[in-house]
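Box 4.2: Ligand-aware structure prediction
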Amino acid sequence: MESLLHCILVLVLLIASSLLSSPPLVAAKLSTSYYARSCPRAEQIVSDVVTTKQIASPTTGAGALRLFFHDCFSGGCDASVLISSNHFNRAERDADINLSLPGDGFDVVVRAKSALELACPGVVSCSDVLTLATRDLVSMVGGPFYPVRLGRKDSFTSRASSALHNLPTANMSMSQIINIFTSKRFSIREMVALTGAHTVGFSHCKEFASSIYKRHNRFDRSLNPQYAHALQKACKNYLRDPTIATFNDVMTPGKFDNFYYKNLLRGIGLLATDRALVADPRTRRFVKHYASNQTAFFEDFARAMQKLSMYGVKTGRKGEVRRRCDAFNNLST
Ligand code: HEM
Ligand SMILES: *[C@@H]1O[C@H](CO)[C@@H](O)[C@H](O)[C@H]1NC(C)=O
Ligand SMILES: *[C@@H]1O[C@H](CO)[C@@H](O)[C@H](O)[C@H]1NC(C)=O
Ligand SMILES: CC(=O)N[C@H]1CO[C@H](CO)[C@@H](O)[C@@H]1O
């Protein structure tokens, strides 16, 4: 009798603790060995394709990382961002905010998926491909390697409006950005760590042009004047040529490291929202922490990416394994 009570107590505690840890039910269904039987070489296949692609096109890593963030934040990591628009539906990737998402990020997913379809047709979801490709690319450009759980299903929907409501933009206030993250249960610290992704990749001039010219005869106080001059030069013709873009991290543009934070402390943050991370007392201490200790940044970034990769994940009948990443299996939906 006593042992039965004990068992029940343990069971209740187990259930309670699984409910408290987030996100409990979905996390239980995903696992690092999800494809161990159905497609044992899945991770290797993705890794091979990603390596070849990144060597040929070094902008791939940043492109995929941003794509992954956008996919997860607009309605969960479910490959909804990969769907092409048609006559009936404006898909997520065609929301205005997505216009600048670079082709290489999409391309690496399509290539990895094609290779997987040859080895194990219809088995590995596009959302898992994007998750794995992003993880591999981050470590390939110098960032931390972290294990990811697999078994995501791909979405049945993709709507442009979802991206517009869920993604941060460079003209938002720090309070608005914090709200976006905390409403999805990401802490301020996790937000600062994830935004360290801006240690790689590019931004187009229109995303920061409004702050690089003098107003009332002086520069924005958060911006290093020499840096502002260099940006003015780089962006001189951006209205005529909107494809002009500059590095997010001018010091080590292609390397995943903590120079993004070091730069911020010296007034060489590119986007207004990057510089606001130093100006705002809610975020400044995390910037200083990561600027002074890359290991601390990598640990927090890896943990936050694992959490991001579980956000809004669909399992079971809530999704499908798409045959092509840019289209639903049932084309009439
Ligand atoms: C905190 C709020 C954030 C804002 C306001 C923001 C905004 C932006 C903007 C405006 C660009 C330039 C896009 C372009 O001109 O093409 C950009 C680039 C980028 N963002 Fe963010 N971002 C944020 C957070 C994040 C997070 C959390 C990640 C990933 C975990 C991320 C990853 C990237 C990457 C990798 C690029 C470079 C893309 C490329 O080179 O193709 N960003 N971001
Ligand atoms: C803020 O930026 C977004 C995307 O870059 C743009 O669509 C929007 O019009 C901007 N909003 C304001 C108020 O400038
Ligand atoms: C840097 O951070 C790591 C991980 O949090 C920690 O173990 C290490 O002691 C820190 N190093 C310094 C010099 O503070
Ligand atoms: C990368 C990508 O898919 N860009 C698309 C964004 O939206 C425009 C217009 O809707 C498309 O032409 C692009 O291909």
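In the box above, the bound molecule is protoporphyrin IX containing FE. The chain is about 50% helix and 0% strand.
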